[in-house]
Amino acid sequence: MRGVGLLVLGVVLLVLALHLHGCSAQGGGADDDGGGGSSGSSAATAPMEEKERRALFAAIESFVGKGWNGSGLYPDPCGWSPIQGVSCDIFNGLWYPTVISIGPVLDNSLQCAPDAKFSPQLFELRHLKSLSFYSCFPASNPTAIPATSWDKLSGSLETLEFRTNPGLAGPIPASLGRLASLQSLVLVENNLTGAVPPELGALGKLRRLVLSGNGLSGPIPATLGALRGLLKLDLSNNRLQGPVPPELAGLRSLTLLDLRNNSLTGGVPQFVTQSSSSMASLQDLLLSNNPLGGSLAQSGWEKLSGLATLDLANVGLVGAIPESMAKLTGLRFLALDHNRLTGKVPAKLAELPNIGAMYLNGNNLTGTLEFSPGFYQRMGRRFASWDNPGLCYNLAAVDAAHAPSGVVVCKDLQEPSVGAKDKAGGRPEASSSLVASSSSSLGLTAAEVNGCWQKLVAASWLVLMLLL
Q1: b vs e for 251-266, b when ≥16 Cβ sit within 10 Å of the residue's Cβ?
Q2: Quick one: angle between helices 37-44 and 2-34, nearest 10?
Q3: Which of 274, 363, 350 lies closest to 317, judged by CA?
Q4: Nearest Cα to 55, choosing from 133, 134, 149, 145?
Q5: Structural domains of the chain, ranges and CATH numbers in brackets
Q6: What distance in Å separates the CA atoms of residue 251 and residue 247, rounded to the nearest whole number?
Q7: How many CA atoms are closer than 13 Å to the CA of 82, on its beta-carbon side?
Q8: pLDDT in tens, the chain (468 residues)
Q9: Residues 210, 212: Cα–Cα separation, whole Å
């Protein structure tokens, strides 16, 4: 057995020796064939058209400054010397830039110079799919989005984003409507003004349209209703006026409609709950801080079974809260605060299975809140109903520890003797902070008071015995 083991060990050592010799020979061959390190680097260079390379460097240089030496720093931008924020893909055996992202996202990201500007070479990058600028144009460098040349990228560009650019001013070019391949248009927190171009309704592949945080004015174009595949529409924080166009009912795939903080009128759009429309995909409907006026639809809410967020705060609503809103079984957030709503609060709202926040404060609601103690305990401060002068709660059904904040106890449910005493003594009316009996005002029940009296008598007897 020992001889067999030695034989096996010898074979293994022989194989290792042959392997090491082969590696050494390959290394020597590489040195002989390469003729130096520079040739090795050249062999690894990704093939790229020189015209494309020059256009890439010129486009980036116009944003980051003339001192940027792209050809020296990144001789192989799609290969062994990649540029942070630039990605490439191969087409017909050659490499082309497909993604350009400029802005202080990472420590080594490309950042714009104080005098950044657009160059014509940007539109020569024929395979560009994604173009984004973050914090690139400060207020000291007012710059407009180019009005022309976007059609050169119509066959490739899928994403166009400008985020947080105080100096990006002027209108949204109508020519962006020619970007036939565009799927995402995000122009957020810039200083863009003027109208939303109706031409954007021609972007048939668009899935996301976000124009929030600008100074856009005028009406919402009815043409946006033609964007059948749109998933997210966010026009919040602008100066848009007029009614929400009924044509938006055509957005059957929409999951987010955010129109907050504008000057829109004409009531809550009826197409949201109309039987003739189908917005079953809608998850978030945000219309707060618009002078919409009108009242809440009395029916049709059950069609929005997937709705998770409904924000109608401060929109000038009048009338009652319809009981049919309790059919919003997927609702997690409901804001109806700071309106002029009247009538009772439907008790069935507490039965919403997924509700996590409900704000009804700042209205003219009246009557008795008929929610359970468990509802108030679970919601805490996420249920708000204060600033409704005619609203109260039943002390017999809800103890003071779980009472809704800022809501008074219903006067007709107080004990008669307590009411008479309050009137005679001129004391304040009962509320969530004022309780209905002398014992409970000390934080004790009647039984607890009786127990305390018995303990006091026993203690007095003990002291008397010790003195004797």
Answers
A1: bebbbbbbbbbbebbb
A2: 90
A3: 363
A4: 149
A5: 46-111 (no CATH), 137-265 (3.80.10.10)
A6: 8
A7: 16
A8: 444 444 444 444 444 444 433 433 333 333 333 333 333 344 457 799 999 999 999 999 999 999 899 989 999 999 999 999 999 999 999 999 999 999 998 888 999 999 999 999 999 999 999 999 999 999 999 999 999 999 999 999 999 999 999 999 999 999 999 999 999 999 999 999 999 999 999 999 999 999 999 999 999 999 999 999 999 999 999 999 999 999 999 999 999 999 999 999 999 999 998 856 678 899 999 999 999 999 999 989 988 989 999 999 999 999 999 999 999 999 999 999 999 999 999 999 999 999 999 999 999 999 999 999 999 999 999 999 999 999 999 888 888 788 899 999 997 544 443 333 333 333 233 222 222 333 333 333 333 434 443 443 344 433 334 333
A9: 6
100 vs 61: CA distance, rounded Å: 12
Q: Is 7 exposed, middle or buried (0-12, 13-18, 19+ CB in 10 A)?
A: exposed
* Amino acid letter, residue 428: P
Query: Contact, 151 vs 123, CB < 8 A?
Result: no
Q: How far apart are CA 416 and CA 435, in angstroms?
A: 13
DSSP per-residue string spanning 181-200? T--EEEEEEEEEEEPPPGGG
Alpha helices in 301-388 (DSSP H): 373-379
Q: Are the C-beta atoms of residues 340 and 366 closer than 8 Å to each other?
A: no
- How far apart are the C-alpha atoms of 415 and 437, rounded to whole Å? 8
Each residue's pLDDT tens digit, 2-28? 444 444 444 444 444 444 334 333 333
Please report where in the chains the tokens 């008397």 appear, as a residue. 464
Do the beta carbons of residue 176 and residue 199 sit within 8 Å?
Answer: yes
Give residues with Cβ within 8 angstroms of 399, minimum separation 6.
373
Phi and psi angles of residue 96, each rounded to the nearest 5 degrees, phi first: -135, 145
Record the tokens describing residue 165, joined without a space.
């650019």
Length in residues, the chain: 468
Whole-number Å distance between alpha carbons of 421 and 438: 11
Query: Residue type at 427?
Result: R
| Strand order across the 364-369 sheet | 318-319, 340-343, 364-369, 390-393, 408-409
CA atoms of 341 and 334, how far apart (whole Å):
14
CA–CA dist 44, 66 (Å, integer): 28
Q: Which two tokens stand for residue 224?
A: 């946006």
Question: What whole-number distance in Å separates Cα of residue 105 and Cα of residue 403?
Answer: 48
Tokens standing for residue 369: 């809140």
Distance of alpha carbon 414 from the chain centroid: 46
pTM of this structure? 0.79
- How far apart CA 398 and CA 19 sit, in angstroms, is 84
